[in-house]
């Protein structure tokens, strides 16, 4: 499981920095866990150069141990407390005339609990799209609607591989709504925006990273299995430095250095985001190009070099309020035929300028969601 987690977390940082080059300004939110699970499922059928490029961007090793690792991750989520909802749905939709190898479908079933469904993409692509969008809407508790846009599922589609992740967690200690007031949030452009600023005075685990010039604060959800890590630059215009400088190592170091601070006055904006990520372009910029080319080799799926990826989609939703956090994300791959001393003064932690956050599983360190907020 450790290799799969290392792969997912390493990919998470690469994706953040590649995507920020594509989107120089504005908010970012995505689930690297959703994306890596979708890619790992596809990796089962990749061969030759296609496989090698996927190994490079995901830092994958032995295929068997990787698939086994992701299987263990999925099983880990079954052990969360009842107050925490974390559902992961994996879907494989195949045209009824397209034949896939039993080894491929069996691997997805045993490692990812994938249910295979047959559709008539050739003759009824619109009906298939409507049904798949409905399944994804149900899997994300109606937070992500019309995931597949019109025209993306056409009559030449052979196979669609999708992963949906939905999370809802309640803070271990909730914010009092009566303490939420209008306060300013300052953007990179020094624009002042009045936001609903929540307030809570409590104990928190905190740390400081000199490498990232930022403070870290952990907010656990009920059950202490999953937490949100806030990353607040010390300078109001420090978000770009944080995004460009963050790495797996310095993020892990900051989290390992978290220590309990007895009296913290936390001010955090209430916010809601829905973001789409141009996954195909990001993956190509990371070096995964062959999978989208006419000479792609996914012969481990059908026994033939007859398909490539035509579209890679990702959409994510998050809402943070006084009670907790609700987040969901979907990744889809569309495959087509080629073609005790006196108490110290309270610590102040005011999130009133651009910041980052991750939502992570605490025992393994697996990052589920990543966000960078430039504007509210």
Automatic annotation (TrEMBL):
Record keyword Membrane present: no
Keywords: Protease inhibitor, Serine protease inhibitor
Xref: Pfam families: Serpin
Superkingdom of this protein's organism: Eukaryota
GO cellular component: extracellular space
Keyword Plastid: no
Gene3D superfamilies in alphabetical order: Alpha-1-antitrypsin, domain 1, Antithrombin, subunit I, domain 2
Recorded GO MF terms: serine-type endopeptidase inhibitor activity
Domain Serpin, first and last residues per copy: 13-376
InterPro entries: Serpin_CS, Serpin_dom, Serpin_fam, Serpin_sf, Serpin_sf_1, Serpin_sf_2
Family: Belongs to the serpin family.
PANTHER family reported for this sequence: GH10112P-RELATED, SERINE PROTEASE INHIBITOR, SERPIN
Protein name according to UniProt: Serpin 7
Organism encoding this protein: Hadrurus spadix
